Amino acid sequence: MSENKFSVEDATRLVAVGEKAAQDARRATRWFRVFVVMQAAYALAFTLSLDIVKVNYWKAFAPFLLVTLCIWMIAFRYRESIPRHGLRNMGIAVATWFALYTLMLDPALQLFGLSSPWWWVLAGVVSITPILACLFASSRR
Questions:
Q1: Cα 108 from Cα 21, distance rounded (Å)
Q2: Cα torsion for 123, 124, 125, 129, to the nearest 10°?
Q3: What is the DSSP secondary-structure string of 44-88?
Q4: C-beta separation of 32 from 72 below 8 A
Q5: Closest Cα to residue 132, out of 57, 5, 42, 16?
Q6: How far apart, in whole angstroms, are the C-alpha atoms of residue 138 and residue 141?
Q7: Are 63 and 97 in contact (CB under 8 A)?
Q8: N-to-C CA span, the chain
Q9: What are phi and psi of 87, to 5 degrees?
Q10: In 4-56, alpha helices (H)
């Protein structure tokens, strides 16, 4: 069996190369957090525009869909640098947001007659939590 012998300088150089690669990998995936925050912000803006500003559903949905498609196309373009299962988790989170808001919170608030804007803001914030949860999963090493 052969022995590997490294000098201190070689070991220091190899450690520095490894640290530089890890730093470059973190820098390459930094955009994903911006993607998650943008998707959450547009989802919250969509929900608030419907229930607080009283915009027509389709007039609010069309810009939301356009912006969502644009940021998802950018994400697919850079999919090589996405954290592991990042797009899958975001897809599940956006679907969960839509179902949570459309099928549960919006009808419940209307059923109980809670018309204060603060209830709608609370419902919007609660419904985007699945999207924001992708922030923390993407920060793991």
A1: 50
A2: 100
A3: HHHHHHHHTS---HHHHHHHHHHHHHHHHHHHHHTGGGSPTTHHH
A4: no
A5: 42
A6: 8
A7: no
A8: 34
A9: -70, -35
A10: 8-28, 30-51
Could you tell me the pTM of the whole model?
0.77
pLDDT in tens, the chain (141 residues): 457 777 888 778 888 888 887 777 777 677 888 899 999 999 999 999 988 898 998 999 999 999 999 999 988 888 877 888 888 999 999 999 999 998 999 899 889 988 888 999 999 999 999 999 988 865 554
Q: How far apart are CA 60 and CA 67, in angstroms?
A: 11
Q: In whole angstroms, what is the distance from residue 65 CA to residue 45 CA?
A: 12
Query: Amino acid letter at 80?
Result: E
Pair of tokens at residue 64:
């939301």
Q: How many Cα atoms within 13 Å fall on the side-chain side of residue 59?
A: 7
**Distance (Å) of CA 52 to CA 34, 49, 89:** 26, 6, 29
Burial class (CB within 10 angstroms; exposed 0-12, middle 13-18, buried 19+) of 136: exposed
